[in-house]
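INFO batch 0412 | record 1 of 1 | parsing
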Amino acid sequence: MLFNYKAIDQSSIQREGTVEAPTIDAAISAVQKRGYTLVSIDEAVKSGSLADLLHIEFSFFNSVSNKEIVILSRQIATLFQAQVSPLRIFRLLSAEVENPQLKLAMNQIVEDLQAGSSISRALAAHPDIFSSFYVNLVRSGEESGSLEKSFDYLADYLDRQYEVVSKARNALVYPAFVVSIFIAVMGMMLTLVIPNIAKILTDSGQELPIYTKIVIGVSNFMVDYIAVILIVIAAGGVGLWRFSLTDVGRRTIDEFVISVPYLGDLQRKLLLTRICDNLATMLSNGVSIIQALEVTADVVDNTVFKEIMELTLVEVKGGRSFADAIAEYPEIPGVLAQMAKVGEETGSLAAILTTLSNFYRREVNNAVDTLIGLIEPAMIVMLGLGVGVLLASVLMPIYNLTSAF
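INFO prediction complete | emitting tokens
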């Protein structure tokens, strides 16, 4: 929801603006994070109105993609290298941004910077766009006086993550599309075409092959219970979605995803790439191991590995080394713990994690290339068998029928 607010900044100047948040409490918190003293706040659009419905309906399409954040970070890094002031950088980029949600956020960041806020604090007011990892790395750059280096790290890091995730996701788009079309065509054949042919075959009085009887039985079932099938599928989808929103459901799904043969191994390598890259980037930028683990636990999008990072953080806070703490978990490869131990002993943990991140990234690329190579012939075989069985179950009885005359 969108909220209008009136507030007073630290210089006693009255400010007016808008903030997007799921609840009014979240909106108040977002305004206060900018260092403002809130005077009033209310919804920009009344709940239930057409404009509110349209805003909810199209908010997905206005969401900020990873690619846009990559481009934005690269532009910020380039302008910092050109010795342009932070306020001017965000003012220039806010005028160039096309995404409405990102443009609104950039305008609010400009307002916050004009009011004397730090860059990290201004970015933190938009957690749906700038992650805790992003904000903490910028804060580290502000404290060390190396903002240019921080944004350069961020641009490189986001570029790497975008490349790996995009390649893995795109590898599944083509087979998912082909399988979806195949299921749709087979469904139409079984509900529209086969019933008409089945009537001719059964009226002929000939003995039908077992595979033909199976196909006709499946066709009759789908025709008689198509409404029930669709309702069950829809209810199952909604139920699974609601289950995934619970803590137990999310963990169950995450555990299942990383346990699936081959695809689970690919998912684990993707997560290890992100973990190693996150830690390496933050440690290289002067962030402590404790803070790096805290942020990494927040940005890992798998509850199993998130729990591992959180438990590792507790042990590191208790005085245990990172390598010893992480070696206890079977989900973490032994080579990672061993190399991390070497990195801690030699004072080059960030470099070791960078090497591991590059290694797992190559593993992901190789796994995706192999997957693509396997999927195409597998789909050809699957489609060929499906179409072949369907045609054989129909054509063979028709051939026998015509041969009888």
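INFO post-check: The beta strands are 2-8, 14-20, 37-43.
INFO record closed
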